[in-house]
Amino acid sequence: MQIFKKGENMKERIPPYVQKLIDKGSIAIKLQFKKPRRETNAYQFPEDPLGEEERYTPVKGIVHKFKNRVLWKITYRCAGHCQICTRRRQIGSPEGDLTYEEIEAGADYIRTHPEVHDVIISGGDGMYPVHDTMHALDLLMKIESVKVIRIGTRMPFHSPDSFRTKPFKELLKKMRFIAKRRPLYVFVHMNHPDELTRKVLNVLKLIKRTGAEVGTQTVFLKGINDNVDALEHLFTTLYHNGIRPYYIYRCDYADGLGGRVCSFKEEKNIMTELRKRLSGPAYPTYIVDVAGGKGKIPPPLGFWKNSGTRTCFDFEGEKINLTLTRKKAKR
Questions:
Q1: How far apart are CA 167 and CA 174, in angstroms?
Q2: How are beta strands 319-321 and 311-313 bridged, if at all?
Q3: What is the pLDDT of residue 102?
Q4: Residue 330 has what pLDDT?
Q5: Predicted local confidence at residue 308, as pLDDT
């Protein structure tokens, strides 16, 4: 039994819109936002399993793990505090707020590393606070070596009504300007179909109308979405609304999240079944962000036994031989 002593800055914070969904009876949403008094954790997980700060942060806010792209954490703030966040060590901490000068220092780092052509604005939330997002976007548009810009956010779910306000209208206007000149991607964190209300879907479509490509990222969470039918509903609804499910992650082995890490075997079984049920564009890539290593690794599904490549099993469970055989030479 482990008491929540880490991430004390990340106190419970539930946006009014999310609270309404909880009040209507969504257990899946409640489990993501209500802070339990105690967390059962049979394993001792590190606070920073991916070594973002210890190994890959050359300047404040920049995570340069892969040669051609960087993650740019412009803030540690979010409109809501998801208790399943793998960056709970930071979220809500004022130490993570970048000043304008620090944001410009991050842009300088990107500018002086022309091998970086793909930048992911994140946090915290890559759209909160919105003025920091716009400042970062302005700076990136002045760097010729940056060819692609991505934004990671949960604002369309945390606070869909914010997109009616003047600051967010200005952000959408800026995104429209950028999308005409460079590829712009917005990836929204969505874990359960209860999150896909009509209001949220309308905001995702509003973002699409800027010209940005919109996709989602999901995390397997025990007791929340480790269910074939729930994930099929989530991904199908997104697909039917023109939103591409991009990734589904195995939950990071982060401190305090031991009770939310699913069985690896069960995850693979679920993804194998979803592969049978979903259209290709509705099926996200299932990956493990390897702790202590470098890379987002896609695990083999149940169609491949023992990770071999000589045989596989089709959707009906039939064994298929993939071994190439040479033709016998004619005499």
A1: 11
A2: antiparallel
A3: 94
A4: 57
A5: 61
Q: Residue 310's pLDDT is what? A: 67
**246 pLDDT above the threshold of 70:** yes
φ, ψ at 149 (rounded to 5°): -120, 135
Give ∠ CA 220-222-226 in degrees, rounded to 5.
Answer: 60
Whole-number Å distance between alpha carbons of 83 and 165: 27
| Interatomic CA distance for residues 109 and 67, integer angstroms | 13
Global pTM value: 0.88
d(CA 139, CA 42): 45
Residues 6+ apart with CB under 8 A from 105: 59, 60
User: In the numeric block, which tokens belong to residue 244?
Assistant: 């591409």
3-state class (DSSP) for residue 157: helix
Q: How does pLDDT run across 219-243, given as a tens digit for each residue?
A: 999 999 999 999 999 999 999 999 9
Give dist(CA 304, CA 205) in Å, integer: 37
State the Cα–Cα distance between residues 223 and 220, nearest whole angstrom. Answer: 9
Distance (Å, whole) CA 245 – CA 191: 11
CATH hierarchy code of domain 2-304: 3.20.20.70
